[in-house]
Each structure stands twice: as structure tokens, then as C-alpha cells.
Amino acid sequence: MSQLRERKPNGQLASPAATPKEKRAHPMEFGGPLGAAGVSFGLPILCYIFAFVCNDVSGCPAPSLLHPSTLSLDQLKKEVGWQGFSSLLNVQTVGWTLAYYLFSLVLNAVLPAQEIHGVQLRSGGKLKYRFNAFSSAMVTMAIAAVGTLIYGAEFPLWSFIWTNYIPILTTNILISYILATFVYVRSFSVKRGNSENRELAVGGHSGNMLYDWFIGRELNPRITLPLLGEIDIKSWMELRPGMLAWILFDLAFIARQYANFGKITVSILIVTFAQAFYVFDALYMEPAILTTMDITTDGFGIMLAFGDLVWVPFTYSLQARYLAIHPKELSYMEIAAILAVQGAGYYIFRGANNEKNRFRSNPEDPKVKHLKYMETSAGSKLLISGWWGTARHINYLGDWFMSWAYVLPTGIAGYVILHSSPAPDSDGKSPADGSFIGGQPVKTEIVPGEAKGWGMLVTYFFMIYFAILLIHREMRDEEKCKAKYGKDWDEYCKKVPYRIVPGLY
Length: 505
What we know:
- It is a single chain.
- The chain has helices at 32-53, 73-80, 91-110, 133-151, 156-163, 165-186, 209-215, 233-239, 241-261, 266-284, 293-296, 302-315, 318-325, 332-361, 387-390, 394-407, 456-459, 461-485, 487-495, and strands at 59-60, 114-117, 128-131, 222-225, 229-232, 373-375, 381-383, 415-420, 436-437, 440-441, 443-447.
- The protein contains 19 helices and 11 strands.
- A hairpin with a 3-residue loop joins strand 4 and strand 5.
- The strands form 5 sheets. It has a 3-stranded antiparallel sheet, with no helix packed on it.
- It has 2 domains: 29-329, no CATH class; 330-414 and 452-504, no CATH class.
- It is mainly alpha-helical.
- One of its GO terms (biological process) is ergosterol biosynthetic process.
- One of its GO terms (molecular function) is Delta14-sterol reductase activity.
- Keywords: Lipid biosynthesis, Lipid metabolism, Membrane, Oxidoreductase, Steroid biosynthesis, Steroid metabolism, Sterol biosynthesis, Sterol metabolism, Transmembrane, Transmembrane helix.
- This is Delta(14)-sterol reductase.
- The chain crosses the membrane at residues 30-53, 93-111, 131-153, 165-185, 265-285, 297-318, 400-418, 453-472.
């Protein structure tokens, strides 16, 4: 039910299981085929734009973009470090990226795991899930920590990520496309009444190939791999490679900042800590994904494949990448304000979800026994007091507040990178700082310049996008709850009139 749900860091929300009326008309979402095409092929381009426009060659954004009337494509290519299409992908990056995925699969297979049954499917059965994402992440982070202790900021993993950032992006885009196509084609082998509890997503078999490929045709696609056992593709992709890569990217950017400037700023530490706390909290609470909309309702298509493997790690880590190049210094007041916003957001988010989990698992728990609720004709209990009595999606508000801690440390973002020849030393030799252009040593200086403020289009994108995402998700969920509860939902909305922000929305 709508007020009894958990949201994952990539915007996934809990939702009731789909109605058993499989043959009922299910409206297309996201604008239908046209919207599906826009998201599927437009968002990868946006990821490239972010990667090139905010760079360590000329600035953030590239200076030419600030003067559109005199914009030259050749000059822009130089400013963004464009080296041709061949630079978008290389064999080494593909190999190491696939090795990363294989390593995660091996950890999933060999580490102790918690086995839990999911919610009941429309066909009546329940799927068993194997969860050990948190311990897998701890092993991965321990290896990275040992490597960093030995090699410092030049640990090969961190250097590889920084040097091959664009090829890694391309590789994961291709993996998401291939994976979505594989599960789409394989979904046509789903037969009614099969013993494997395979079934199609309610909204994933519209008959339009593009839309179904996007939204996901099969609900819970699974595959059995030699020596690695059965893998639930959707639940594994939700919290494994992409989510952990998000934090690995942040750490690589910290290493790059130290390599560039010989220091690590509080600003990049706040961003990384806030995001790591968010991710590891989700990994620790891994079983909570079993009641999310992604698991119970949505099929697995390019929407989730791209979101899990590309959108999350590459767009959510933009702030740390920015700070690796422009080490923003924060005052004590700025630090206190950012931490206060982060703390308030987490207090709302975790408090609301803990209340929900306690009420769902044991309504007689002393901590939730006093809460008021209304019963529906479907047999569900909808909370009308406590956190969930203030707004029907109060956890989204806390979620959004937490996103502020990701962007505020970048300040009034924007910088220009200046290159100049240094004056000779007293002995007549030119001091080299490790940077060369045309074989001559140059001095690199990073200043706000006229770019100040324009970089916020990149570093503050997440906060704006996340607000839109939460509102859109809330609207999707409201429609599903209305369809499930009917008049009971109307009555519930009268008792809890606000959607996300008490007294406002």
C-alpha cells in the first residue's frame, strides 16, 4: 500500500502487487513508445554531455559554450578533450568491466547469504531470493582499501577509472542494451502455468516492441550460470554492480583530487560520505527491495537496466568528479548547514520507513501500536497517523532533503582551467609541475572566472532531477493505489490530504 513502502537510492519505490486481473487494459507510461525512445536513446547522450562538458581540459562548462554566437565545433572539440569516436571504447575497458561483473557474481555465489521468499506472484507462487549484497560490498571495499594503503592515490583501480571514464561509460551502456534485449527475446518463452513461476509484467506486453523492450516484458527474469547458480537478473542488478560502482567512482575521484592537489577537501568527503551512507544503508537493507515497485510490478527492460548500470553510477557521482578537479573549500558554517540538512533528511526518511516496517511486520509492536489506521475492503490497513499521517509519501521528502547534501558542497559551481608557461627559476630552468603541452612545461590554474554559476547546471542537476523523479513516481503509485482500493483510496486521501510536503503538496 502506498504509505507502507521503502525507496531505494535510484528512485525505486515499494508498491502493492499488481491486480490479478491480467487481461485488463494497462495504460502505457512515460509517454508511450515516443517517450520510451526518448529515454532509451536520449539519456545515454545526456550522460556523454555531462562527461565531456564538465572536464579537466578547459573547465566546467567548456568555455566555448558560454559564447554560443561564436561557438566553433573544432574549438569545442579541443576544449572537451574529444579524440574521436575510437576513444569512446577500448578492449581493455570492456575486459575489466566484465571482470568486475564476474567478480560480483562470484561473491554472490560463495559468500554466506540470507534466503528470503518474495511477495506472492499473480500466478500464486513465490520466488526465493539470495541476499548478500552488503557482505559482497564489504569484501570489495576491503580489497580497494588494501590497494590504496599500498599504492596510495595511484592505486591502479583509481587510476584506471579516471583514465578510462568515458570507455567505462560506453561499456556499461552497451551492457544495458544487450541485457535488455536478451531478457526481451527470452520473455517470449514464458508459458502460462510454468513450474519456474515465470510471468509477464502487467504493463510489459502491450504489443509495441519498443515500449515493451523499454518497460520490461518479463517480470522476474532469471538465468542459471555454470558454477554460479541461479541469478535473478532484476534483483541482482538493482543493488550490485551499479550501486557499488557509484561509490567506487567517488573514491576514485577523491584519489584524483589528492593526486592533483596533494590534499582532500571536506567538500568531497561530505559528498562521498553522504552517498556511501545512502548506498550501504540500502545494501544492508537489501530484503526491502522485495516490496518495491521494481520487483513486484515493473518488468526488467532498458528502463531498469540502463538506470541500474549507467544512470545511477555515472550521473549520481557528478559532484565528486567535479570536486576532483575543482577542490571547493567550505567554511565551518557551510559544513554545519549541509550536515544539518543531511541529518534532517535521514531522520525523516529512516524514521518513516522504520515505522512502516514495524507496522507491517508486527502491528502490536509498542513503538507502533498506538498508530491509527483505516481498513480497506481489500483487507489492507492504511496508516493515518504518525509519519504516514502527515503525508502519503512523507519518506520522499526526507529522501529529497538528503539529495541536497550531494550538491551543496559544490557551491556556486563553475570553473575555467588556465594554462600558462611558468617563469624560469633562478638557475634559468623552467619549473615543471607535471603538466606539458607541446613538450613544454605549463602551469595549470583553476579559477571560477566567467564560468562561475554555469557549472551548477551539471552539479545541481541531481537535486532537480530527483525532485521530478519523486513526483513522477508518486503520481504513478497514486494511480495504482486508486485502481486497487477504489473508493477506500478516496476516503484515505481525505484523511491524509497531502502527498509529499505536509501543508504544501
